[in-house]
Amino acid sequence: MNKKSISVLLLLMSLTISDWIFAQKLEERQKPLTKEEQILSKKAKLSFADAKKKALEKAPGQIFNWELEMEEGKIIYSFEIELPDDKKYSREVDVDAMNGKIISVEKEDLKTQMENAKNPSS
Known about the structure:
Elements: H1 3-25, H2 35-43, H3 48-58, E1 62-71, E2 74-82, E3 89-96, E4 102-109, H4 110-118
Antiparallel strand pairs: 1-2, 2-3, 3-4
């Protein structure tokens, strides 16, 4: 194989790996990553897996939706979590994508948040 062929092969492999990573991230949500989320994911220092782990340590349960967003000048992973012992309320856990600190934990109406996750407006 010549250098050009190797370069093309490596590029295709990296694109395939990138697509696979994004597909893995989407398993807890209904909508694909937005352009903004794709850009923010490249800037984030904390991996999706590490952010997910931190969120679940704070609110153990089942993630049913998440997003990566810029909020108050910070890149955050925002996870919607259904708790096993609370069928009325979910928890939204925000994790700083740069340092892994928990920014906030909010109690939200589970039914409303589940509907929003199934029928995203954007």
